[in-house]
Design brief:
heterodimer, A: 364 residues, alpha+beta, 17-stranded mixed β-sheet, B: 177 residues, mainly alpha
Chain lengths: 364, 177
Amino acid sequence: MSHEPRHDDYLWDRSGPVDNEVAGLERRLAPLAWQPRQRAVATPTPVVRIGGGRWLRRARRALVAVAALVLVALGTQVWYAHRLQWPAAQPWRISAVDGGVTVGGKALTAGGWLEPGAVLETSKGASARLRIARIGEMVLGGDSRFALVETRDGRHRTRLQRGTLWARVWAPPGSFGVSTPGGDVFDLGCEFVLQAREDGSGSLTVRSGWVQIDNAWREVLVPEGARVEFGVRGEPGIPHDLGASADFVAALRTLHAQGRRTDADGPTVHALVAASRPQDAISLLYLLQFHPHLADGPVFDRMAQIMPAQARVAREDLRAQGTDALRPWWNALPYPRIKRWWLQWPDAFATGKAPAELLDTEPR
Amino acid sequence: MDGSPGTPAMVKAARAGDGAAMDRLYRHFAPVVHGVLLSYVQHADADDLTQDVFETALQRLHELREDAAFPGWIVSIARRAALDAKRRPAPLTGLDAEPASDPAEVEDRTDAERSLRAIRALPEAYRETLVLRLVEGLTGPEIAERTGLTPGSVRVNLHRGMAQLRERLARGPGGDR
């Protein structure tokens, strides 16, 4: 990798003439730095006790059972470790192609390999199926332009310049990422379909787990069974459940587009609330998160009605604490926890479904 | 880059249950872990999560294959912890809600948060490196040593990230969205 020009010595190691802008940022940001304190981490002290004596026979049987379980656990661990390992820059396998597919401009008629930096393009109606290192698989739909940017243990980054991509990954959150003209998308243990256009617009449909969108506008987490659309230049809308009615989605788009100008008790809000189902809580909550003034109207009352009684949020708390007060509702949403990504274990296995079915974003 | 000459030795001793070595590891790498977390989550969360990350790392130290790989390994644990924490809505809310006393302090804190928000809006690679340099006060060579990145990569990230940050800050308050 080439080095940048040497006029940034102060930025590099505080040598050379002081860069006033860098020094100003250092001064402003220093209070946010780590404050040294005593480590309060408990030292792990595994303790093993093996019983004996008159229960010897029973203990032997138990030991055999434990040994069998340990063997299974070790086997699983070895398989898991192997799955996550991937030599840096090793090409990905293209397992199947259908129609016009090129890699680096050269036509591909059967399987092949995609190296970091190489561009894979599909013509209209074509598709290509690839292994994502060892952590999952993906399918590119027709009229797509895709590149592998970086691949190594725990970090696989790609770029979808345009087109449609289906991916299913079973690995710790953040292992697989796709950048698009509108922003970056990171898997948090999941299956999803991503559509991207060169003007930044597109959509993301999540089928299992969670997916994170990160761009200059904001960061949005989209749970399984939900979709979010991006406007031109990548502005993400409000995620909505795939089963939401057309009236609900239309009202949601209008409200989000109006932003702060929205009347919290206006006709669009009432139309939204009237069309809402319990499964639409994710959208109502995002609305309150992004447009807190809507809490003065029926959106808040509808959320209070939908959410479990033990997850209590008060309007006064929202006014006093801001959107942090919404946390009990976020925690009560009926989606899998990202920490438990491994529970989506069926995603670890290859699917035999056809590309057209995988790339279909309609509710199932 | 495989960490400072002392890192593998500290890791080896910590594996053997040496409490003093664990403390040394903690003090040496806490700013890096905190900086990586702060690149994604709010300040108050980053403080708490730093403890969690070390707790996880020390409990899983036996899984680390090479002692010298500790810097990259702990950074990846911190990154995952941050992504997990972002499942909660707090990162979307902007400023930390902290009691204010002196208006000048409030202004300083707001300036700091605004600058941090502008850094967080940068691409991932630049964001983490700039937080480690500008917030945690580490120099480029220290960042390379404690993250497992090469000095060349760190220098490039700093240079390009700073150029984008200058542009973003020059655009004014709306530019750091």
